[in-house]
Amino acid sequence: MAAPKKGRRPAGAQGRPGRTLVLFLIAMVALAGGMFASGHTTPRLGIDLAGGTSITLKAKAEPGQEKAINKANMDTAVSIMNRRVNGLGVSEAEVQTQGDRNIIVNIPKGTNSEQARQQVGTTAKLYFRPVLTVAAGTPAKPTPSTSPSPSASKGADKNGDKNKPSSTPSVKPSSKSTPQGRAVTDALKADGKPAPKATPSKPGTPPNTPKPGTTPPTPPTGDAAAVAKLQKDFEALDCSTKESRAKAGFGSKATDTIASCSQTGDAKYILGPAEVDGTDVKKAKAVIDQQRGMWIVQMDFTGKGSKKFQSITGKLSKQQQPQNQFAIALDNQVVSAPSVSQTLSGSAEISGSFNQRSATDLANVLSYGALPLSFEEQSVTTVTAALGADQLHAGLIAGAIGLALVILYLVLYYRGLALVAILSLVVSAILTYVIMALLGPAINFALNLPAVCGAIVAIGITADSFIVYFERIRDEIREGRTLRPAVERAWPRARRTIMVSDFVSFLAAAVLFIVTVGKVQGFAFTLGLTTLLDIVVVFLFTKPVMTLLARKNFFASGHPWSGLDPQRLGAKPPLRRSRRTPAAPTDPKEA
Q1: Which of 64, 409, 443, 124 is CA-nearest to residue 263?
Q2: b or e along 511-541 (b: 16 or more beta carbons within 10 Å of the residue's beta carbon)?
Q3: 430-475: per-residue pLDDT in tens?
């Protein structure tokens, strides 16, 4: 008989199932340890299970631009809102259109959900405008005037008042080669003077609140009647309420000079025509300058935006305070108004009295641009998890009943082999739970009702893989082979069938995930995940366990309760080689 080729494992080879099983169990323990070490021991829940906030936004057209409310602009608004929410790390948020004018935003309860609500509601266009005048936000107080606020100016006396810390944000060139994007201007390096640090303002005080004691700057020039009306509107402007802040500058164009409020309402401004708009910002991010111990915002501009920014900063750097500031205006409300000390282009950083949240908010607004339409909140509804909890309870009961029926079938039909199937199902369930818990903080995966349905459907997929393998083993036993070679010879055929079946299931889940949106993606993601885990469990757990059990006398001897009784399976007699006996001689002489 020809010997098997060297280096090729025979069909009946058993490998090292013990080592494979140990390595698999070590990997499981490591994953579980990572879950407990991370502190995320339960999967994150979607809005239907955890509750949250549902916001209805209605598009509104500016005067003379009624045709701007169209499908293309609404789809663009949905896309930008999605990016804003995802930029804050909010899981399972849904943004979708309703009709031709409304957008529904569902934000689950949890980390950053309130911050995401504020970001989604910020819906108007983003402009960089030069500051002409600044005053306190309410006319009830004496109108304060502005005093020069130090920034990174060339030639500042480090012992004089000009270099005292200020809470007014400043903008400087961004140096990408230094840690955390820290920038020190060339002018300050040349003079040997340290860059001024921003002193955080007291709680409730905005970074741009004007200081009393100096003469107000000259108001804008131009048509006398228009200037007089603008000055009158500016003096009467009360920024203490959200409604008045929203109305200030509404309906104005990018080329208009407007009166505007800060987002906090503590300061009001006269802003010149927009020099740069939000689409000119390529990206922005919030980082902490470790050497200065403060949060800053780094900006990168597009090629076109860089030229515009260079032009405006070149003009502003020659002006006095506050006319050397440019306002970052969103929805005609000033988010920040940093001062400029020199011409900038390409990239820059904004520093001031930021904390982590305010810096992140500003970077998020700059990064994800401006919406093509203006929106107003129609309704804000708090969604409770009571209904979802009831549905989840009913779904878990249905899943438990289905699992019980599967186990009952396995016990009645496969008897002892049911132990292998049950252990494999338990291992698969543990892996699914641990990975879902880890995916929550990793990729913002949130478990919703459709995802739970996908996990329940996966029970049948996993059980089907066991049945395929068990039936292949039984086929080998029916052919007259003993259990140990039957287990190994059945594996290659069962493996091919399992791979093809799981590939089809995974392909269906992938297509469903790509072509759908919202909660259906949760079902597709969970189905695809559990399909991959089915392959892992069958290859690294079920097969090695079956190989080890084949060495046990209870299974190897074909005990009636093992599920592998040859007589019950109708096995053929063992195939044995028989010697050919010579025919008896017929001639007496030959005998």
Answers
A1: 124
A2: ebbeeeeebbbbbbbbbbbbbebbbebbbbb
A3: 999 999 999 887 877 878 888 888 888 888 888 889 899 999 999 9
Count of other CB atoms within 10 angstroms of residue 409:
14
Sign for the CA dihedral angle at 429, 431, 433, 436 comes to: negative
Cis peptide before 322 (omega within 30 of 0): yes
**Could you tell me if 439 and 586 are in contact, meaning their C-beta atoms sit under 8 angstroms apart?**
no
Rg for the chain (alpha carbons), in Å?
36
Question: Residue 331 corresponds to which tokens in the numbers above?
Answer: 């929805």
Buried/exposed 255-293: b ≥16 CB within 10 Å, e otherwise: ebbbbbbbbbbbbbbbbbebbbbbebbbebbbbbbeebe
Helix (H) or strand (E) holding 284: strand 281-289
Of how many residues is the chain composed? 591
Supply 78's token pair: 């949905």
Tokens 């189905």 locate to 527
Instruction: Provide the β-strand partners of residue 130.
Output: 326
Q: What is the pTM of this model?
A: 0.55
Measured torsion, CA atoms of residues 284, 289, 293, 294, in degrees rounded to the nearest 10: -20
**Other C-beta atoms lying within 10 Å of the C-beta of residue 17:** 18
- Beta-carbon neighbour count of residue 160 at 10 Å? 9
Surface-to-core class of residue 140, CB atoms within 10 Å of its CB (0-12 exposed, 13-18 middle, 19+ buried):
exposed
Spell out the residues 6+ positions from residue 501 whose beta carbon is closer than 8 angstroms to its own.
461, 464, 465, 468
Q: Which residues pair with 260 in a beta bridge?
A: 269
Q: Residue 174 contacts by C-beta under 8 Å, 6 or more apart in sequence?
A: 181, 183, 298, 299, 300, 347, 348, 349
pLDDT digits (tens, 9 = 90+) for 478-537: 988 889 999 999 999 999 999 999 999 999 999 998 887 667 888 999 999 999 999 999
CA angle 358, 364, 370 (to 5 degrees): 120
